[in-house]
Amino acid sequence: MPKIIAKKHDWIFLGYKLFSEQGVSGIVVEKMALKLKVNKSSFYWHFKTKKDFINEIISFWITTDTNKIISSIESEESGKEKFEKLIEIVFKKEPYLDFIFFLKRYGLKDKKIQLLVDEIDNQRIDYVKNILIEIGFSINDASVKAILFYKYLIGYHEMIRYKKQCNDYVYKVKIELNQFIKF
Question: Which of 52, 54, 83, 156 is the most buried (most CB within 10 A)?
Fold first, then answer.
């Protein structure tokens, strides 16, 4: 017999995982309840609607994939150390990297989501720009290079999506990045 309730975090993490794999079509309450071995009423104990649930998943993603990364990088002292730590973290292949791709697709149907995605993209680009300024680049150069960095990051993950990442990925990424950002 299934449990009656699952913790809110259990639902959110499962939703995050499924959204990363299938986008919004992966968010099916009945199937999720089966995976969690609970009644689907457990879902509605925590979330009023599927849209509220998706918003919670997006908040979880922002916290995990943007805010926590920035916090861990800020512990580094110099701009160069921050940049190197950023490379190590963001270029590492993780199991839920497709979340942003599905979120961008979902944003095509929902203007609020599209605005949020744009805001997160801009926050990430600005963060890289500020690190590059700290390294010594001019504001204009840092702005252009930060955009190139972000586009390269997205393209890099698209290129390795179905491949095993090599152990020396940081070394190889640094060589490639040094073609347009000397650090």
Answer: 83
- 0.70 exceeded by pTM: yes
Residues in contact with 135: Cβ distance below 8 Å, sequence separation at least 6, in sequence order = 79, 80, 83, 183
CA angle 72, 76, 78 (to 5 degrees): 145
pLDDT tens for 71-111 read 999 999 999 999 999 999 999 998 898 999 999 999 999 99
Under the phi-then-psi rule, with left for phi > 0, alpha for psi from -120 to 50, and beta for the rest, what region is 42?
alpha
Number of other CB atoms surrounding residue 21 within 10 Å: 14
Question: 24, 42 in Cβ contact below 8 A?
Answer: no
Q: Provide the 8-state DSSP code for 75.
A: T
DSSP state for residue 154 in the 8-state scheme: H
CB 41 within 8 A of CB 4: yes
Are 147 and 125 in contact, with CB atoms under 8 Å apart?
A: yes
Q: Tell me, what DSSP letter sits at residue 29?
A: H
Strand partners, 3: 38
Whole-number Å distance between alpha carbons of 36 and 16: 14
